[in-house]
């Protein structure tokens, strides 16, 4: 055990998880690569849990942060803040929500917590609809709506949460149905659920479930849900913490795969917009955002430094069409990984879109989750010089692949080659 690991264990809670048998200290990064304390270089296919979205040490972001820090670091939301207003204007326009208002937080957890506050206040109800296998953060309220037991340490909650079918396409009671039949069955389930409950405040859903293993419903499910929700006056919260900013390649926001009945009432974001800086936020229609009848602020949300980083990062993302790059390079990577998976008895499914890809591992010849194999592949990939993540509701048996959106074709090929070798270690 390294000295730093020993010190970590002495001062950190037991539930603060670390990857790898011998945990990794990352000291610096550049582009799509990072280096550890021993000087070993890794190709980064996880980006600090989808947070280093653009590139490590991106000069444009580093310059913006440095220049802003040289002027003033912090003021709070009690004062006018030019970078915050400028970033809010851009996000409001990009969100697709009419008459949008933006509130900045410091994380996705805090953003979802705020969205729940808005929805329950607006509707006068503490009942929330959430998706099975979902993850929305680690605060008391966010844990209460998380449908993944590995990340839900308590059932105590100020909310009444009811879970809806549809977040996982290839497991569960509707897995064998066609896409159209799947949507019809999930909508019928939602209709039936609402017929047995008090008026719900909102449905919160990730368009692609992140921690849940990059699972997703057929395109159009949430549009079909929206017809039911609208009849009951229930709001739709789209949790875009992991799917936003073009990561899926096909769309800028995950909700746009379900856009037939318009944008969500509330959209939450975080992670990638700061490219490593702590930015989260909520976008909502003005009547929803303005429903609170008490004062509120965010001491650190909308910090001049993080807003400067967000503006620089968003400009780089749009100017260099990183959404298009995610579509092109992600499509190539998905094709390579599916070909590799077809040759492994441990691979149940390779799924995803853009640069958001999951590889679900099972015990050979069965449909049973194989968390031991996932851990072994994670370790083998590290040995080969590649960092990936893992997740999934079925005992954390899904490899999560989400590189920075500036990933090159050569780097995608390199990563696929390392993953192929890592998968061979488990069969």
Structure description:
The protein is α/β, with parallel strands linked by helices and 427 residues long. The two termini are 29 Å apart. The chain has a 7-stranded mixed β-sheet with strand order 4-10-9-8-7-5-6, sandwiched between helices. A hairpin with a 4-residue loop joins strand 2 (33-36) and strand 3. The longest helix is centred in the C-terminal third of the chain and has 21 residues, at 322-342. Helix content is 37%, strand content 16%.
Percentage of helical residues? Answer: 25-40%
The span between the termini is 29 Å
- The side-by-side strand order for the widest beta sheet comes to 4-10-9-8-7-5-6
Computed structural class: alpha/beta
Over the alpha carbons, how many angstroms does the gyration radius reach?
Answer: 21 Å
**Count of DSSP helices?**
13
Runs in which pLDDT lies below 50 for 5 or more consecutive residues are: none
Percentage of residues in strands:
15-25%
Shape: globular
Number of strands: 15
Mean pLDDT: 96
Order of helices and strands: HEEEHHHEHEHEHEHEEEHHHEEHEEEH
Largest sheet: 7 strands, mixed
Secondary structure layout:
Blueprint: H1 3-11, E1 26-30, E2 33-36, E3 41-44, H2 47-50, H3 59-71, H4 82-95, E4 100-105, H5 108-123, E5 127-131, H6 140-144, E6 160-164, H7 179-194, E7 202-205, H8 221-232, E8 235-239, E9 266-269, E10 280-285, H9 286-289, H10 304-319, H11 322-342, E11 347-353, E12 356-361, H12 371-383, E13 386-387, E14 389-391, E15 398-401, H13 409-424
Parallel strand pairs: 3-13, 5-6, 5-7, 7-8, 8-9
Antiparallel strand pairs: 1-2, 2-3, 4-10, 9-10, 11-12, 12-15, 14-15
Helix pairs in contact: 3-10, 4-10, 7-8, 11-13, 12-13
């Amino acid at each position: 055990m390294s000295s730093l690991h020993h010190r970590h264990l002495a001062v950190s809670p037991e539930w603060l998880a670390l990857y790898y048998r011998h945990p990794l200290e990352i000291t610096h990064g550049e582009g799509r690569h990072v280096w550890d304390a021993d000087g070993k270089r890794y190709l980064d296919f996880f980006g600090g849990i989808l947070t280093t979205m653009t590139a490590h040490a991106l000069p444009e972001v580093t310059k913006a942060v440095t220049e802003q820090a040289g002027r003033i670091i912090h003021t709070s939301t009690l004062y006018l803040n030019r970078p915050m207003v400028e970033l809010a204007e851009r996000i409001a326009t990009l969100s697709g929500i009419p008459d949008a208002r933006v509130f900045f937080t410091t994380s996705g957890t805090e953003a979802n917590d705020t969205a729940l506050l808005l929805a329950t206040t607006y509707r006068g109800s503490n009942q929330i609809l959430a998706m099975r296998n979902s993850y929305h953060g680690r605060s008391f309220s966010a844990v209460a709506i998380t449908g993944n037991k590995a990340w839900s340490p308590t059932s105590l909650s100020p909310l009444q949460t009811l879970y809806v079918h549809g977040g996982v396409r290839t497991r569960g009671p509707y897995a064998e149905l066609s896409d159209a039949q799947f949507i019809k069955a999930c909508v019928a389930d939602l209709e039936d659920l609402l017929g047995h409950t008090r008026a719900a405040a909102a449905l919160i859903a990730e368009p692609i479930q992140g921690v849940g293993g990059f699972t997703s419903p057929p395109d159009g499910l949430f549009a079909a849900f929206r017809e039911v929700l609208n009849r009951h006056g229930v709001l739709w919260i789209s949790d875009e913490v992991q799917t936003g900013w073009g990561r899926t390649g096909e769309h800028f926001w995950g909700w746009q795969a379900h856009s037939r009945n318009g944008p969500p009432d509330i959209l939450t974001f975080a992670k990638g917009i700061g490219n490593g800086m702590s930015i989260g936020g909520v976008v909502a229609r003005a009547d929803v955002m303005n429903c609170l009848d008490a004062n509120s602020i965010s001491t650190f949300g909308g910090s001049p430094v993080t807003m400067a980083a967000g503006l620089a990062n968003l400009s780089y993302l749009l100017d260099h069409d990183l959404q298009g790059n995610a579509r092109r390079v992600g499509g190539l990577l998905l094709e390579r990984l599916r070909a590799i998976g077809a040759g492994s008895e441990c691979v149940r499914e390779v799924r995803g879109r853009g640069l958001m890809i999951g590889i679900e591992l099972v015990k050979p010849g069965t449909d049973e989750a194989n968390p031991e194999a996932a851990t072994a592949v994670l370790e083998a990939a590290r040995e080969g010089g590649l960092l990936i993540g893992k997740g999934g509701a079925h005992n954390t048996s899904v490899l999560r692949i989400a590189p920075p959106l500036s990933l090159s074709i050569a780097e995608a090929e390199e990563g696929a080659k390392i993953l192929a070798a890592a998968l061979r270690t488990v069969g």
